[in-house]
């Protein structure tokens, strides 16, 4: 156990630390596995998940595959579920959807066996998002609604926000703008005040939903706010997506 817990001034400082220590943490995964400390190895593999989601195309697959190998070695179904859910999401971001679905098909059942409804909800929503991206829209919608229901039963706000955010995105793709707006508004009421990136994502989705139902001035305001929030959080990918939505809105007016 460490003598003290590292504290950070803000999210950016924490992410900078993860980036600086990435090589050391990856080395620790390899060392732990070599010593047979597989329970530590899979946890160390997943500990950088905040950086993974920000730098999602930064070759995280080998690290997560090593973590999954350790989780399987010790037969830990909870560890396997968490690792497969994240690995599947990373593979999806890399455009490797067929490989992603292999992991995402298994993750929810493993979480259910482990008795972890939070992990199960996250696994379902990740699976559903990839299905949605590959054209299985009806099944994706059913799984997302199931994920929202699971998250609501846990009463875990960040998981509720995640599932609602994905369901809103599904509704936007289906041009169900009123439903999307309702999901976004509910998620905004649950999101933590300091969840800057999440709130910016919700602002962007809210802007798109408002545009879809014809409330163009409000939509423009939300998208402009989202761009500012993304920029302050140092998340250029989100800013670019919101700017693209704003550009399309301006072109359509």
Could you please describe the fold and organization of this structure?
With 253 residues, the protein is an all-alpha fold. The protein has 14 helices and no strands. Helix 10 (157-173) packs parallel to helix 12 (196-212) and helix 13 (216-233) runs antiparallel to helix 14. The termini are far apart. 43% of the residues are buried. The model has no long low-confidence stretch (mean pLDDT 93).
Please outline what is shown here.
The chain is mainly α.
Helix/strand/pairing class, anyone? mainly alpha
- In total, the number of strands is 0
CATH fold description of the domain at 180-253: Serine Threonine Protein Phosphatase 5, Tetratricopeptide repeat
The DSSP helix count reads 14
Summarize the biggest pleated sheet: none
| Proportion in helices | over 70%
Would you identify the regions where 5 or more consecutive residues have pLDDT less than 50? none
Q: What's the CATH class of the domain at 180-253, please? A: Mainly Alpha
C-alpha-based Rg, rounded: 19 Å
Strand content: under 5%
- In CATH terms, what is the architecture of the domain at 180-253? Alpha Horseshoe
């Amino acid at each position: 156990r460490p003598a003290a817990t590292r504290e950070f001034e803000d999210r950016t400082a924490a992410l900078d630390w993860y980036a600086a220590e990435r090589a050391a943490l990856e080395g620790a995964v390899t060392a732990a596995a070599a010593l047979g400390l597989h329970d530590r190895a899979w946890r160390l593999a997943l500990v950088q998940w905040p950086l993974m989601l920000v730098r999602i195309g930064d070759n995280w697959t080998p690290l997560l595959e090593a973590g999954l190998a350790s989780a399987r070695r010790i037969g830990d179904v909870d560890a396997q579920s968490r690792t497969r859910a994240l690995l599947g999401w990373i593979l999806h971001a890399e455009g490797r959807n067929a490989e992603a679905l292999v992991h995402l098909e298994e993750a929810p059942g493993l979480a259910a066996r482990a008795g972890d409804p939070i992990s199960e909800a996250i696994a379902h929503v990740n699976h559903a998002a990839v299905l949605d991206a590959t054209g299985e829209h009806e099944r994706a919608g059913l799984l997302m609604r199931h994920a929202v229901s699971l998250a609501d039963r846990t009463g875990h706000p960040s998981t509720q926000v995640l599932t609602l955010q994905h369901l809103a995105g599904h509704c936007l793709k289906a041009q169900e703008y009123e439903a999307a707006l309702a999901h976004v508004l509910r998620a905004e009421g649950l999101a933590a005040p300091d969840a800057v990136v999440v709130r910016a994502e919700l602002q962007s989705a809210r802007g798109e939903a408002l545009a879809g139902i014809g409330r163009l001035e409000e939509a423009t305001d939300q998208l402009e706010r989202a761009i500012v929030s993304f920029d302050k959080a140092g998340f250029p990918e989100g800013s670019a997506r919101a700017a693209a939505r704003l550009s399309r809105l301006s072109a359509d007016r």
